[in-house]
Design a protein that fits this description.
Layout: H1 2-22, E1 27-28, E2 35-37, E3 43-47, H2 54-60, E4 66-67, E5 73-76, E6 81-89, E7 97-101, E8 108-114, E9 120-125, E10 141-144, E11 152-160, E12 165-167, E13 169-173, H3 174-209, H4 212-231, H5 234-239, H6 252-268, H7 271-274, H8 276-298, H9 303-328, H10 334-355, H11 368-445, H12 450-482, E14 490-492, H13 494-504, H14 506-512, E15 515-518, E16 525-528, H15 530-547, E17 553-561, E18 566-573, H16 580-585, H17 605-614, E19 619-623, E20 631-641
Parallel strand pairs: 1-6, 15-17
Antiparallel strand pairs: 2-13, 3-4, 3-6, 5-12, 6-11, 7-10, 7-13, 8-9, 8-11, 14-16, 16-20, 17-18, 18-20, 19-20
Helix pairs in contact: 3-4, 3-11, 4-6, 6-8, 6-9, 8-9, 9-10, 10-11, 11-12, 12-17, 13-15, 15-17
């Protein structure tokens, strides 16, 4: 018996709760102002099989309605039919009131209004239905409520669709609806007007400048405009009112935006020239976009919507990362690009996840693409101007560098002309000398004396030797000067190299009565080509011996700058010396101190030595206090390793 009482009590409790659920709390319009948020005042019923009739919903399944707990209703992607119920108490209402659903891309929305005879009138609307079915010519779904007769009225809404089911239902008075429509159309007019102006402006820039970056921006703006007029309901209201099926292809704008964004990015950031690796990445991205575009025609909703949303999310991640990476790698023109796309792609991301039901739906969600588009239009306009300024500065820099290179080349050409003139002058003299000798030998050869024959042949051999010498030395100099790479270097010991040369010239030194002191440290090691450094030392020692007075002295010393990593070698004599003007040209090819009428030297030894030293990272120069006061040849060579004193 007790068990029976418990069962009866439970049944009565369920009946009471069902009766409470059946009765929605009415929205009292008295003193409600000009607008009322309706979402959290409604009751919700889900029909998983999508075949219940209004009578079944009102009677058989009435107890299954549940109260809404949010003003923005978000049901996501679902195959179910959603029923909504709300009650309005218009006893003290003043004037007409309207139900407004502000989310304009619902596939099917039907309002059931009591007709006063126990039945209901149906008002089927939706973006898959012709615009002419709407009771009011408005981009949103606007229904007039029965408030003239007062009293309490119960309404039903039937909602279904292939896309995301989101709602933001509101109740407006006539005055409130007019003000809402006026403000919204003003904002939308400014938005679309800005986009169209920027589209036309960039189209004119493209036609004028023929710069494809403006054409890609025009494509992007076209995609943005098509997407927004589709999802905002203006397309169905003004452009294709009797062809609502066009609304189902709003996802086309996603691919137009993604493709134009990729092309714009490649050219704006100059990826092919500056970042080839990222350019290859974008080419693969474009291939992926093409494959997804083909799949989009095959997949059925909601999977096709999921795919376009996935493309949008991938675009958010890719281009945000790409712009930031290029900026960090020093391409400063990307800073406005990063700022523009980061905010725009963030708004697209929030709009996408809001439609997917992954975050609470808010009244601002439908306007996120508008906010992002306006932001990107402004920032990219600034970015294009910044890019033009950057390219202009870069062009000026390149022009300046080209001018400097041209001036340098002209200077080199002028120097080459001077060298050529000097070389021709030198060669003409050097060839003339042995020719004169040969002429003199010929005149001497007309006499038949034996002594004269010996003199003739000696003169001929001397001319031949000099001709061979000048040709060989000149070829050697030009070969060294024109090589592209320096010779192989190693560790060399200057003291021992000079010591060996001194021993080779010992007889000559002894005959001249010269005193020679080698004070270079035996521990000093420099980096140079051993064979060429020996050749430089040989030239320096030969010049010192040749121009030193009999009984004079020659000194060789060294100093080490460990901090700089260089050794300083000096070969100093007490010979003829040189004037300041001679020192200025002494390292030039074919320059000869004094008269050219001499039998030894070709004016190439010091020029050749300078080239050899400079090609291993050293320096060679000459100093002299003046004529008759001696001459010093200075070498500065990089250190290999060093231990010991700088001079001995």
């Amino acid at each position: 018996m007790r068990k029976f009482h418990l069962v009866v009590f439970a049944v009565l409790a369920l009946l009471c709760s069902a009766a409470q659920a059946i009765q929605p709390e009415p929205v009292v319009l008295k003193g409600a102002g000009e607008e009322v948020v309706l979402g959290d005042r409604m009751q919700i019923l889900e029909d998983p099989e999508s075949h219940w009739s209004l009578d079944q919903v009102r009677n058989q399944f009435a107890s299954r309605f549940r109260n809404s707990d949010t003003s923005a209703l978000n049901f996501g992607f679902t195959d179910s039919t959603i029923w909504l119920r709300f009650s309005v108490d218009a006893t003290d209402a003043d004037g007409s009131w309207f139900l407004v659903e502000r989310y304009p891309i619902l596939d099917e929305l039907t309002l059931y209004v009591p007709d006063g005879d126990g039945g209901f009138d149906e008002f089927p609307v939706g973006d898959t239905r012709p615009f002419s079915l709407r009771p009011m010519d408005h981009r949103a779904f606007v229904f007039s409520l029965n408030t003239e007769n007062g009293g309490e009225t119960e309404y039903y809404l039937k909602l279904r669709g292939k896309g995301a089911l989101n709602m933001m239902p509101m109740l407006y008075s006539a005055k409130g609806l007019v003000e809402y429509t006026y403000v919204e159309q003003l904002i939308q007019g400014l938005f679309y007007g800005s986009l169209v102006i920027m589209l036309v402006y960039n189209l004119m820039l493209f036609l004028s400048l023929r710069d494809n970056v403006h054409l890609h921006f025009v494509m992007f703006l076209g995609g943005i405009i098509f997407f927004n007029i589709t999802v905002s309901g203006y397309g169905l209201q003004f452009l294709w009112p009797e062809t609502p099926k066009i609304n189902e292809y709003f996802w086309l704008a996603t691919y137009v935006i993604a493709m134009s964004l990729a092309l714009y990015t490649r050219q704006f950031l100059q990826l092919a020239q500056r970042f080839p690796r990222y350019d290859r990445l974008l080419r693969h991205y474009l291939i992926m976009i093409g494959v997804a575009f083909l799949l989009q025609w095959v997949l059925q909703p909601p999977y096709s919507y999921h795919l376009s949303t996935l493309v949008a999310l991938m675009t958010v991640v890719l281009f945000s990362w790409l712009g930031w990476t290029v900026w960090r790698q020093g391409f400063h023109v990307a800073r406005l690009y990063v700022l523009a796309w980061s905010v725009f792609l963030l708004t697209v991301f929030l709009f996408a996840i809001g439609n997917l039901g992954l975050m609470p739906y808010h009244v601002i969600v439908p306007y996120l693409p508008h906010i992002g588009a306006l932001w990107v239009v402004v920032m990219l306009s600034l970015a294009l101007g910044d890019r033009i300024r950057f390219l202009e500065n870069e062009r000026k820099q390149l022009a300046l560098e080209a001018q400097q290179n041209l001036e340098r080349h002209l200077s080199d050409i002028e120097q080459m002309n001077q060298d050529k003139s000097m070389f021709l002058q030198y060669i003409s003299h050097e060839l003339n000398t042995p020719i004169n000798w040969i002429g003199a030998a010929d005149s001497l050869g007309s006499h038949n004396g034996e002594d004269s024959d010996v003199d003739v042949w000696a003169m001929v051999r001397k001319g031949q030797k000099r001709l061979i010498g000048i040709v060989g030395t000149s070829l050697r100099y030009f070969d060294i000067s024109d090589r592209n790479q320096p010779p192989p270097v190693g560790s060399c010991q200057p003291m021992w190299m000079l010591d060996a040369l001194v021993r080779e010239h010992s007889d000559r030194i002894e005959q001249s009565g010269l005193t020679l002191r080698n004070r270079i440290s035996p521990n000093l090691r420099v980096r140079a080509s051993e064979s060429e450094l020996r050749e430089v030392f040989a030239m320096a020692l030969d010049n010192a011996l040749r121009f030193s007075a009999e009984g004079g002295s020659i000194e060789m010393v060294s100093e080490v700058d460990v901090a700089e990593g260089f050794a300083h070698l000096v070969i100093r004599d007490e010979g003829k010396g040189a004037t300041a003007d001679q020192l200025e040209h002494i390292m030039e090819p074919f320059f000869v101190m004094g008269s050219r009428h001499h039998e030894e030297g070709f004016g190439l030894s010091l020029a050749m030595a300078r080239v050899m030293v400079e090609q291993v990272g050293g320096q060679l120069w000459a100093e002299s206090p003046g004529p008759g006061r001696g001459f010093s040849l200075h070498l500065r060579l990089p250190l290999a390793e060093y231990s010991g004193a700088g001079a001995e």
